[in-house]
Amino acid sequence: MSTNYQLEIVWKNVFLMVVYHLLALHGFYYMVSFRAFVATTIWATIVGETSNLGVIPGAHRLWTHRTYKAKLPLRIFLMLCNCIANQNSIYVWARDHRVHHKFTDTHADPHNINRGFFFAHMGWLLCRKHPDVIKKGKTVDMSDLENEDVVVFQRKYFRYLTFILSIFIPTVVPWYFWGEHLYVSFCLATMFRYVVSLHATWLVNSVAHLWGTKPYDGRIKPVENIIVSYITHGEGWHNYHHTFPWDYKAAELDTYRGNTHTAFIDLMAKLGLAYDLKVAPKSMIQKCKSKNESRSQDFLKDIKEKEKQLIFVENGATRQEILR
Fold first, then answer.
1. Buried b or exposed e, range 117-146, using 16+ CB within 10 angstroms
2. 283: which of 77, 193, 199, 300 is 20 to 30 A away, CA to CA?
3. Using CA atoms, how far apart are residues 12 and 15, in angstroms rounded to an integer?
4. Are 259 and 230 in contact (CB under 8 A)?
């Protein structure tokens, strides 16, 4: 960490995050106590799943990594879904994620896992960015998004669009159509739904960089975590994704286990709305896995050799350990 860097907490963000979670807890209480209509819970689920389309098939796989191409109707739909998610505009989301991939697990990584679980999960949003994030982030090419009309439009009107699509409509629909209490509707269909979607996304930055397997590249932090994959509909196969970030599936799997957003993109392709889906060749994947296995075996051999070299001087005055 830079010697001139000092952690600076953004107390406004801390306050807002606390308020968001308190309101979300109210929503959770109304849901589990059945003080909210079941229809409101179903509505919150529908809105939440729709918002996920704007984050994963949209901001992540389409606009950040360009893993496939989408025709205008699909791009507009995904942009509107992204507004419902309200996880920053497509441009900002993609910029931060491109920086994350280019400088993974360094101080230039916006949610560097080496700064701890909490920081990677949500703490990075509660403090000022590390200077390296800003400095090296400027080296990331964003010209493609700066010249895409749908992204430019959303970035210009993001506040208005998110208020209407992420707050106003999700809150008003249960109140207007089936008589839900307005506050209950706001806490459940808007705040609880929103906070749950945030934590689901954050799990990829935290859990999927800590606990799991590394069949493709053992030298990096990202791992394969099946639980995160099911929660996020396909984003938990993270060791694969960081090895082949341009694969539209974000996973090697031929099935849709925990990867329903791959199924969504496949459906859009069948409807003619998505095309040029990029896939890592099986031969390339197998070669990568073989190299990784070989590196792992060499590492274990090296460890065993060092263990054999341990020297202990019996007089108790000296103990030399070559293994460090």
1. eebbbbbbbbbebbebbeebbeebeeeebe
2. 300
3. 5
4. no
Q: In terms of residues, how long is the chain?
A: 324
Mean pLDDT over each residue of the chain, to the nearest integer: 90
Print the SS3 string covering the chain.
CCCCCCCCECHHHHHHHHHHHHHHHHHHHHHHCCCCCHHHHHHHHHHHHHHHHHHHHHHHHHHHCCCCEECHHHHHHHHHHHHHHCCCCHHHHHHHHHHHHHCCCCCCCCCCHHHCHHHHHCHHHCECCCHHHHHHHCCCCCHHHHCCHHHHHHHHCHHHHHHHHHHHHHHHHHHHHHCCCHHHHHHHHHHHHHHHHHHHHHHHHCHHHCCCECCCCCCCCCCECHHHHHHHCCCCEHHHHHHCCCCCCCCCCCCCCCCHHHHHHHHHHHCCCEECCCCCCHHHHHHHHHHHHHHHHHHHHHHHHHHHCCEECCCCCCEECCCC
Q: What are the pLDDT digits (tens) for 97-140?
A: 999 999 999 999 999 999 999 999 999 999 999 999 999 989 99
- The residues spanned by each domain of the chain are 11-280
